[in-house]
């Protein structure tokens, strides 16, 4: 979601400067690739790039293709075959041993349902959404970014002949929580669809405004997460100390829950260094939808809190991550922040957090949470 947010900001800037733009989207990958389907990049006519569709090896050629799409005002699907030993002749030299299909869409401001307008609608509310991009691997018609589907709301420019089928498939993606690739017959050709599940950004709520919370909040911001700081001390919970926090609350623990929203994309970290504050919040957090709850400090502290709350069950002990973080030998506040963020990320994606060199399956398994 951060990449989309950055693209929207860059587009607004380009519009003010009266620059023409194009959106590049990785719509399909066969084999290995640095980026997976759903990776996006905004290209301006003067060569400014926001986002990424590769590790840097494709961007030069992508700029040329984007400029061509802008000049011709026509969507273009470009295929990069890095399995070809002679791919150096194209000046790409990816070395990824995969086939990458990238769709280039010039942005027409007069089109009320242009790709940027559809992406912008993603930000209106914190909820899951389905984004559908239509393209043709074996055809000339390249419809592009075509539908945003949310529960109770649809923003679509999909042709009526196939819209009902795509909505049905979008609902299945919602239910299955994974992306899908489908093929439909439209316009005398087979039309491919990348049906993508988009989650709102992770909401990281940090209870504690000490010095050790500052690098955690800043690093989470760099990841594109929404950061909320909560503390009972007005001298610590300030905008000066947490410049990039979305929300800062000075509150007693018993009043916190009425001032925040917790959904399935919420991670809550207890690091107030105040036992009574932490235990009061923990009592309420165990009844919420928060997908991650972590407590700073030793395991015996967590067990003591659960015992005092009469909530010492195997389920609760398993749900709360205490001590918080991954074992990376962290010592400083910055290193501890990396440890915490890595664990939260692994929980949300369902990843194993093992060394990648020891992983027996592909690194990228598309369809997992992409927060």
Oligomeric state as shown: single chain
DSSP strand content: 25-35%
The residue-averaged pLDDT reads 90
Question: What spatial order of strands do you see in the largest sheet?
Answer: 13-12-11-14-15-16
Helices, by number, come to: 10
Summarize the structure.
This protein has ten helices and 16 strands. With 371 residues, it is of the alpha/beta class.
Architecture overview:
This protein is α/β, with parallel strands linked by helices and 371 residues long. Helix content is 30%, strand content 26%. The chain contains ten helices and 16 strands. It has helices spanning 2-16, 59-72, 115-120, 160-176, 213-222, 253-256, 275-285, 299-308, 314-319, 333-349, and strands spanning 21-31, 40-44, 49-51, 76-81, 98-106, 129-135, 144-150, 153-156, 180-186, 189-198, 203-207, 226-231, 247-250, 266-270, 292-295, 320-321. The strands form three sheets. The protein has a six-stranded parallel sheet, sandwiched between helices. Strand 7 and strand 8 (153-156) form a beta hairpin. It is elongated and about 70 Å long. Mean pLDDT is 90; it is low at 87-93 and 366-371.
């Amino acid at each position: 979601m951060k990449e989309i947010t950055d693209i929207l900001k860059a587009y607004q800037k380009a519009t003010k400067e009266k620059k023409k733009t194009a959106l590049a989207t990785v719509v399909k990958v066969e084999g290995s690739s640095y980026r997976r389907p759903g990776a996006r990049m905004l290209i301006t006519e003067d060569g400014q790039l926001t986002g990424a569709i590769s590790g840097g090896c494709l961007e030069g050629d992508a700029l040329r293709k984007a400029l061509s799409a802008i000049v011709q005002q026509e969507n273009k699907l470009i295929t990069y075959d890095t399995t070809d030993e002679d791919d150096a002749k194209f000046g790409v030299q990816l070395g990824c041993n995969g086939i990458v299909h990238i769709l280039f869409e010039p942005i027409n401001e007069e089109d009320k349902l242009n790709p940027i307008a559809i992406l912008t609608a993603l930000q209106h509310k914190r909820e899951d959404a389905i984004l559908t991009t239509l393209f043709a691997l074996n055809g000339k018609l390249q419809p592009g970014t075509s539908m945003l589907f949310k529960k109770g709301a649809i923003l679509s420019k999909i042709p009526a002949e196939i819209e009902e089928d795509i909505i049905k498939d979008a609902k299945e993606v919602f239910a299955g929580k994974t992306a899908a690739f489908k093929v439909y017959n439209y316009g005398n050709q087979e039309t491919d669809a990348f049906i993508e599940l988009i989650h709102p950004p992770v909401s990281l709520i940090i209870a504690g405004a000490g010095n050790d919370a500052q690098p955690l909040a800043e690093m989470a911001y760099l990841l594109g997460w929404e950061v909320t700081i909560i503390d009972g001390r007005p001298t610590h919970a300030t905008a000066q100390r947490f410049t990039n926090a979305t929300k800062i609350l000075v509150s007693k623990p018993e009043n916190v829950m009425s001032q925040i929203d917790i959904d399935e994309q919420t991670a809550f970290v207890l690091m107030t260094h105040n036992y009574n504050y932490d235990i009061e919040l923990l009592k309420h957090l165990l009844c919420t939808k928060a997908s991650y709850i972590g407590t700073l400090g030793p395991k015996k502290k967590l067990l003591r809190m659960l015992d005092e709350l009469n909530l010492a069950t195997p389920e609760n002990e398993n749900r709360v991550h205490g001590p918080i973080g991954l074992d990376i030998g962290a010592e400083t506040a910055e290193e501890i922040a990396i440890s915490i963020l890595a664990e939260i990320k692994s929980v949300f994606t369902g990843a194993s957090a093992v060394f990648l060199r020891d992983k027996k399956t592909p690194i990228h398994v598309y369809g997992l949470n992409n927060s």
